[in-house]
Amino acid sequence: xxxxxxxxxxxxxxxxxxxxxxxxxxxxxxxxxxxxxxxxxxxxxxxxxxxxxxxxxxxxxxxxxxxxxxxxxxxxxxxxxxxxxxxxxxxxxxxxxxxxxxxxxxxxxxxxxxxxxxxxxxxxxxxxxxxxxxxxxxxx
Length: 140
Known about the structure:
Blueprint: H1 12-24, E1 29-35, E2 38-47, E3 56-63, H2 72-86, E4 91-97, H3 101-109, E5 113-123, E6 129-138
């Protein structure tokens, strides 16, 4: 995890706003995974309408720790890729913490390449600085 407890918390109203915004925007996608009426994870692709960058979206995913290892992140990623390809989105970008080796492997196995590294980009609660790996997938 690269967030401290309470950081990036989105309440129910915030989720509803994001989902509404993403539903109304052809550049955005918001997916939710429910397990027994609980949100186990979600992903988001966010694009911009500016012509020079309208060909790409930024991908983000979050899965509750108790649901790690069930393929939820993989399925959210693959559905996002299918959506992007079907909607002529040429590039998907993402950022991932260097220590998240499983995610990096998942992304590489789904066509993403490392495009760069932001050195000592995150200061976490253990007092150490960590790199952020910038990855992208281009689908012509």
